[in-house]
Amino acid sequence: MRSPVLTRLLAAALLVASSSAALSQAAWVPVLDVNDLVIKQVAQFAVLVYGLAHHRDLAYVGVVRAQTEQAVGGGTNFRLVVVAARPDGGGSTARYDCLVWGVPGSRSDTWKLRRFRKIVQG
């Protein structure tokens, strides 16, 4: 006869194992239209927040590639390759690898810029 505590522990372990399997199945999905309004807004958010946080004057130019993934606990992760330029840089542009989390349709203060790194061409 099993004790109630052992039964609960076993049930909890099964629940964790099943949720871990579900999380490992989450996959990045390519966005076919990088000119989609939501994708453009997420990219503009990333450029703006990075510029404000790091005192860089960057201007959004466009999105090269985008992927989305359902985030654990809700919301959506956006992985983007964004092109931005320094307005005073004579028109030179650079690509940036961005990771943004947010809930489409929610207020902007709930969104988070997780990563914004310059992609070194080489």
TrEMBL record:
Domain Cystatin: 33-104
Listed name of the protein: Cystatin domain-containing protein
Leader sequence residues: 1-21
Gene (UniProt): LOC103631780
Gene Ontology molecular-function annotations: cysteine-type endopeptidase inhibitor activity
Record has Endoplasmic reticulum as a keyword: no
UniProt xrefs under InterPro entries: Cystatin, Cystatin_dom, Cystatin_sf
Family: Belongs to the cystatin family. Phytocystatin subfamily.
This protein's UniProt keywords: Protease inhibitor, Signal, Thiol protease inhibitor
Organism annotation: Zea mays
Keyword flag Zinc: no
Pfam families associated with the record: SQAPI
